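User: Sequence in, structure out. Go.
Assistant: Echoing your sequence, followed by the structure tokens.
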Amino acid sequence: MRDSEARYRALLDEIRDEFPRFRLVRKDESSWQRAIDRALRLVTAGRMTSYLTQYQTTIGNAVYVTPDWDRRDADERYITMRHERVHLRQFRRYTLPLMGFLYLLVPLPTGVAWFRAHFEKQAYEETIRATVEVYGPAAVGETAFRRGIERQFTGASYGWMWPFPRSVARWYDRAVERATT
């Protein structure tokens, strides 16, 4: 087994130890996830079309994964699961009803979704730390990597949760500094 695959499997073991009810579920096999996909297409006026195929999603103790999950590179799965573990912990702390309410509706469902941005900043900061661990500090300095994360906050993927690019850029710089020092 390659080192990266072993690292990914060890992380899954850690997650299962911390969350005994944890499970990975393929999104395309979940009627609930397909319904969310349709709703997101409506709410974003057709701009979010890749929910089922490009985004992993945590709800409660389940991480819903894309159909290609098992074929993705082990390092990518590792980094993503580090991000999703943050969400698992958030759900444990806030409970499913409160987390859902805050994440989806407060203060607004789109545009200025402060709690969604807050929760995602915590998870994306873990993405940054894991990326530094796997690929080194230079990886988080790459423009494409940075812009990819910034777009998650300011674009349709998360319903324009925090459409203030300068604010997101400042947060990113601080997150990178914390991850690389």
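User: And one key feature?
Assistant: The mean pLDDT is 97.
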